[in-house]
Write a structure and sequence with these properties.
The protein is mainly α. Helix content is 49%, strand content 8%. It has two domains: 96 residues, Orthogonal Bundle (DNA polymerase, domain 1); 185 residues, hpI Integrase, Chain A. The protein has 14 helices and five strands. The strands form two sheets. Strands 1-2-3 form a three-stranded antiparallel sheet. Strands 4-5 form a two-stranded antiparallel ribbon. The N and C termini lie far apart (67 Å).
């Protein structure tokens, strides 16, 4: 194959190697308007594909080779296998688009089935963790938990929130104070009315923001990060996750050994489920999802009510 690549490959693209195509494809991915972390992850997936198939002519790769490669990954890392197959499909689809090959060898390959292992978070668990954090953690931790639940935002977006992000938006001719968030993962801009109230918690977004004002010093102009340390700087993302885990381990009994315990990100699902049960209709916009199907995944409790012996009551409207 190396001989074909060096000779016919100069004229016919399909005889060039997967590694040669990966150099071009990598530049295509790097030019996409996606987050740096996502680009780095995808570069890692591409490197792994090249390590497995790089010496093969791009036009000679067959479905069974890709299926075997993905199957080997799935045997130890099923979640990674799904991500690898998505990347491999995109890689060869672009090869078709660029005229390197005429057919996509990924066509018909089944996506590895992945058992959802991470447990959902309940409001009772969240409350126990919040109370534990209020007694045992730095003051920003309990505020972070409240913001995560009331706003339903991701860790990076919680970290980026500032008092100056609250300003009015015109809604039907009325100025409505809103907390403005440009979501780091997608760039989606979400304006959450500060009057949005989570009934079970008895707090509005405005209450959650106000709770962040007096526990640490402000900047000279009165602005500051909502979640901040005594130095005034926001905690790093890893510290936010670690503090959540610390509160979880301090307040809750050990999780099932066959499942992953809830992470900070599960506050986002809990917010979606609680607002949906409360009757808030626009949960999709709150979470910043482009598609309703993604919001439905967050609203799925993964059998939580059934495990806790709860019944779903039919609404009479």
């Amino acid at each position: 194959m190396s001989f074909l690549s060096a000779t016919l490959g100069r004229i016919v693209h399909k005889y060039r190697t997967v590694a040669e195509w990966a150099e071009i494809y990598g530049k295509v991915v790097a030019a996409k308007p996606i987050q740096l972390k996502t680009k780095q992850n995808r570069a890692g997936y591409i490197k792994r594909i090249v390590g497995e198939l790089g010496e093969r002519s791009v036009g000679a790769v067959r479905p069974h080779e890709i299926a075997a490669f993905i199957g080997d990954v799935a045997a130890e890392h099923p979640h990674l296998a799904r991500r690898m197959l998505i990347e491999t499909r995109d890689m060869f689809r672009e090869a078709v688009n660029y005229g390197w090959i005429d057919r996509d060898p990924c066509h018909g390959i089944r996506t590895p089935r992945v058992r959802v292992a991470r447990l959902r978070l309940t409001f009772e668990q969240w409350s126990a963790m919040h109370d534990w954090a209020a007694r045992n953690s730095p003051p920003w931790v309990s505020r972070m938990l409240v913001l995560a639940l009331v706003t339903g935002q991701r860790r990076g977006d919680l970290r980026a929130m500032r008092f100056s992000d609250v300003w009015p938006e015109q809604v039907d001719g009325v100025a409505v104070p809103c907390l403005h968030i440009e979501q780091q993962k997608t760039g989606t801009r979400v304006a959450i009315p500060t009057s949005l109230r989570l009934d079970a918690l008895g707090m509005t977004v405005a209450d959650a923001v106000a709770q962040c004002r007096d526990y640490a010093s402000l900047e000279d102009d009165g602005d500051a990060w909502l979640v901040r340390k005594t130095t005034g700087a926001p905690p790093v993302g890893a510290s936010m996750s670690w503090r959540f885990e610390q509160a979880r381990e301090g307040a809750l009994p050990p999780a099932d050994a066959d499942a992953d315990p809830p992470s900070l990100h599960e506050c986002r699902s809990l917010a979606a489920r609680m607002y949906d049960a409360q009757g808030v209709r626009d949960v999709q916009t709150l979470l910043g999802h482009s598609h309703a199907s993604m919001t439905e995944l967050y609203k799925d409790d993964r059998g939580l009510d059934r495990r806790h012996g709860r019944w779903k009551v039919v609404s009479l409207g």
